[in-house]
Amino acid sequence: MPLGTLDRTPPPFFRQGPSALTRLTFFVVLAAFLMVADARYQVVRPLRSVIATALYPLQWLAMRPVVWVQAGSGYFGSLRSAQTEASSAQQKLALLTQRAGQVEQLTIENTRLRELLGLRLRLGTSSQAAQVLYDAADPYTRRVIIDQGQIQGIALGSPVLDESGVLGQVTRVYPLISEVTLVTDRDQAIPVLNTRTGVRGLAFGDPNSRGGGLELRFMAANADVQTGDLLSTSGVDGVYPAGLPVARVDKVERRVDSAFARISCRALAQVSGVEHVLVLAPLLLAVPAPVEPTTGPMAVRKGGRP
After folding, report:
1. Number of domains the chain contains
2. Any idea what the CATH number is for the domain that residue 231 is in?
3. Residue 305's pLDDT is what?
4. Does residue 110 fall inside a structural domain?
5. In which region does residue 266 sit, left (phi positive, over 0), alpha (psi from -120 to 50) or beta (all else)?
6. What range does the domain containing 182 cover?
7. pLDDT at residue 33 above 80?
């Protein structure tokens, strides 16, 4: 059979409808119409709303992994930033705390130095300031080392004060430093005067007490001593000027089996942790020596007879 006589049309089973070009043209015209109609008359908006509402759950599920990844990265980033800020804040807080402690310490030191200066002006005797370097190595004594010695004119037996009262007495002098025995040392004794009654006594360091304790010994059981009485230096020893505050009576025990009362006192000076002190010249050195008479009927000439 000749080839020109063959039927080239597809059988009815394989019919595809309109051609591809026809469909393309139709859909292009339809898209253009819908765009113009939607732009002018908003005819597709209800359909768009329905489709968007129907597709929202699928969009929400599809976006969950992205949201979780972003939230996780944001969380870890915020955590690192918070940790960094917390560390910086702790460092700043530690620095501010250190500075606040230094300011408070300097304020206290300035106040004490001002009080020492005022005490020096009130005393009217020769004195010099000194700084406590460290406590003595002997644990059974109450002594401190100051940064002034023989070169600076410190004399043996010089009274040592702080801004509150008598602290002790210089017991050893070296060229550059000196050793001060505190009033609370067991071997230290200081004549005192009860400012309320005018009764004199002798205060000894009390090693059995905690901190700055003294004991007023050899006081009769019926002596007029009350808790809160102020004890000051009497000046009879020729070392301490009279009127310097020493201690305050803390406790009075009167026992029937003893002729003496047990009187515990608390030192007014800062016997623990003191930093700046005032060293006075001993009272005997401040008193001028008596001048021998050079005229008169009994005067003796040097190298001759009266």
Report:
1. 1
2. 2.40.10.340
3. 46
4. no
5. beta
6. 127-286
7. yes
Residue 297 is predicted with a pLDDT of: 47
Q: Please indicate, yes or no, if residue 93 is contained in any of the structural domains.
A: no
C-alpha distances out from residue 110 to 58, 107, 119, 148, 166, Å: 76, 5, 14, 20, 20
- Cβ contacts of residue 90 below 8 Å, gap of 6+? none
**240 within some domain:** yes
Is residue 221 in a domain? yes
Partners of 216 in the β-ladder: 203, 263
Return the pLDDT at 194.
92
Residue 5 or 257, more confident: 257
pLDDT at residue 24, as a whole number: 87
Res 60: pLDDT: 84
Residue 81 to residues 70, 90, 152, 174, 199: CA-CA distances in angstroms? 16, 14, 59, 60, 73
Q: Which one is predicted more confidently, 47 or 247?
A: 247
Q: Evaluate whether 171 touches 121 at the Cβ level (below 8 Å).
A: no
How many Cβ atoms are within 10 Å of 241's Cβ, its own excluded? 18
pLDDT at 88 over 50: yes
Buried b or exposed e, range 182-207, using 16+ CB within 10 angstroms: bbbbeebbbbbbbeeeebebebbbbe
d(CA 240, CA 246): 11
